[in-house]
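Researcher: Sequence recovery benchmark, item below. Answer with residues only.
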């Protein structure tokens, strides 16, 4: 196997051939502001106990805010949420508007219009190269009952999967 295939661009292309959903991580920063980060590294991990994972780039502007927090939420986005996804994927202001979320039982950030929402206590972090893997212990989970179309990401672009809406 040529090592050229391990160059960042080639690796990115290979990783990008794995179609994923898109999610928003929500945390309260040091000023108690609700902030969000777009991710596609979400994975379901365990049912018993209930665990999920996702990965955070160490160069993210939100790195300190997220690593300092002992809780976070994960919100699985719907097909009509590309604008929010783009906004929370841009360096700069990651703050949510107050109208964009409601509090979970623990006060976590449950994004309006998301297809599924998980409120997590930080279970474990794992150093992994230029990322940190976050494992969350899920304390509250909510799923949209209708079959609405998810926001998908494949080969560097948003894609749509047809749902019932
Ligand atoms: C579809 C999509 C998926 C992304 N997935 C991740 C991810 O899993 N982990 C991560 O740290 N950044 C991910 N990003 C990048 C962050 O959203 C982006 O780097 C960040 O918001 C840029 O601003 P920051 O430097 O303020 O973090 C993703 C971006 C997009 C558009």
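Model:
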């Amino acid at each position: 196997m040529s090592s050229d295939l391990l160059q960042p661009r080639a690796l990115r292309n290979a990783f990008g051939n794995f179609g994923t959903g898109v999610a928003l991580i929500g945390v309260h920063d040091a000023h108690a502001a609700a902030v969000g980060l777009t991710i596609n590294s979400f994975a379901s991990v365990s049912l018993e106990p209930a665990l999920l994972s996702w990965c955070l780039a160490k160069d993210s502007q939100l790195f300190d805010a997220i690593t300092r927090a002992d809780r976070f939420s994960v919100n699985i986005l719907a097909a009509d949420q590309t604008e929010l996804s783009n906004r929370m994927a841009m360096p700069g202001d990651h703050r949510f508007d107050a109208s964009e979320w409601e509090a979970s039982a623990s006060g976590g950030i449950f994004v309006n219009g998301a297809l599924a929402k998980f409120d997590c206590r930080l279970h474990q972090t794992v150093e992994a190269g230029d990322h940190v893997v976050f494992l969350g212990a899920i304390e509250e989970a909510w799923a949209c009952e209708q079959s609405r179309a998810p926001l998908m990401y494949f080969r560097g672009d948003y894609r749509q999967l047809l749902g019932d809406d």
